[in-house]
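Dissemination and training. As part of the outreach component of the grant, students in the summer workshop were shown how a complex can be specified as a set of sequence lines and then modelled as a single object. The example used during the hands-on session is reproduced here so that future cohorts can follow it. Participants entered these lines:
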Amino acid sequence: MKRLLLAGVCAFAASLLATSSHAQGTVKIGVILPYSGQFADAATQMDDGIKLYLKQHGNKLGGKNVELIRKDTGGIAPPVAKRLAQELVTRDNVDILAGFALTPNALAAADVSAEAKKFMVDMNAATAIVTTKSPYMARTSLTVPQLIQTLGTWAEKHGLNKAYTMVTDYGPGIDAEGAFQKGFKEAGGDIVGSVRMAVQNPDFTAYVQRAKDLNPQGIFVMIPGGAQPGAFGKALAEVGINPKKTEVMGQLEIADEHALASMGDIALGIITAGHYDYNHHSKLNEEFVKAYNEDFKRNPDFFSIGAYDGMHLIDIALQKSGGKTDGESLIAAAKGASWESPRGPISIDPETRDIIQTVYIRKVEKVGGKLVNVEIASIPNVKDPVKAAMKK
Amino acid sequence: MLPPVFGVLFDGLAYGMLLFLLSVGQSVTLGMMNFINLAHCSFAMLGGYVTVVLMSSYGWPFFATLPCAFIAAALVSVGFERAFFRRLYRASDLDQVLLTIGIVFISVAVAAYIFGTEQRPLQLPAYLRSSLTFMGVRFAVYRLILIGLALLITLALVLGLDYTRFGARVRAAVDNERMARGLGIDVDRTFAITFALGSGLAGLGGALAIEIIGLDPSFALTYLVYVLIVVSVGGLGSISGSFAAAIVLGISDVAGKYYIPQLGAFLIYLVMIGLLMWRPLGLIGRR
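and obtained this result:
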């Protein structure tokens, strides 16, 4: 009898749990990020972007309460990301998959999104093809070619004819090498040489020395964020390349806040293409940076903004779908969504589900004794050029 | 004017010295004491954080922070040695590896908790970041300092271990512990001091290395591979072996990246495999 009673209580409790999680007013979001390991900082910044958006909106998206379930991939681990996505969908019954700092993990989880018909928001992974892997996926970060091909074209039009490219030998590096060379050559420029550098590379002097010996007018560099930009800057200083004389160009990581702090004045003159910087001048961004600093005691970066806007997109999609949480309704609602982000006006391309945004060309300058990225040009409404070329 | 090959040799030598400074402590603990301490780079990371925090939060000059990095790593390591490591001196390799790799993971998490997950930049004064030009080849000041310090440390260690009473005790305790005890040597204390010395050197190496290789919580794992390569290629139990290995590896790495960048990342491993096939005990291996 006792046992029967216990079973009854358990069943009742279980049914309570089940109904509470499926109650009308709750949406479950599975967040997959590399919370531990080498890429933990990206995950921290993205998680903080998510937290801030939820806090500012009373923990509600599209009128529904939000329940986040966080999963840690521990780094580049596609099989782990796939398993976590499966668990989130089958065991935790999440409605939406979100996060994704790294391309390999995003690609793996995309299969789950496609099969289970779950809305997936890629908040960072920046390889162009990621969004093609699931028809239920949208992206709120960037694509590497979006920034870099734009940079290549811009550089040629601004008086650079001969450039050397240095990229790290990994996915985004190779993407960037192709994109820069394409943009630069189509505009009429000439690539005088290129090198692919080791992924684990604590010291850049040998590569930089080689670039210097070729004496190019400009150097394009694409390396992962973290420790490497600082090391690269120091190599520039030691070898004696001055970014004020030889144009040094790259994607925003090489001149982010920490990179600039560790490079010091040698960074002056470095030109980067980026979609977000905490110094971007707009009222919205000033408020965003202030709120972010209050909560997390540091400045947001492009990881934070990708995640923040990712939550914004989920918010918009849930509002438009009228609270429906199935993949079909949400992706239909997300297509064409457009809003004002702290980085500027952005929208989701209805055809490719990828982000359309302004690309800023910035130059490192000293403002009030501090090294910052100053916007010197902006190219509005840039689509991902890779998918545009795939269509042709 | 000297041809560019001298620039490459200098950079390679400096990079080798950087590797050496990071690994010399390991060559004491693993090489001399025969204890597989994978947590070596955790102590190096600790030294790095001590330097960064003292410089950025308390405004200490860089050189004043170096002894603190040494002492902090040495003191913490003695705590660990007394509490954990000494129980495993005679345990199997696997036990030692499991314990110390566990400590590595814990140290990564603790560092992320205390210092945050982001890069902690080091702001050195401008004169340390400049370079001198001599006969058309440039010599970075900081790298010259690295080379000088590495030479000093090698000399001090080799002389200290070979010619002092303490060095003789360490060697005796490692070679035949029972006999050493029988002769009245306080083996426990000798080991504790040797371990502290090795870890202190790790702390110092970490503090010196972060200017070039950066510092974040994954430091403890990222550079472990290089340390193990240097020690194994150099040969267990030999400080000068590690020194020679670091030079060979540093120069081949930099020269490889300069002349054959396609091979860049692999050359250091190819050199390691080649050297170990030629001399399985390491360049100057004693066992």
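The mean pLDDT of chain B is 87. Students were then asked to discuss how this feature might be tested experimentally.
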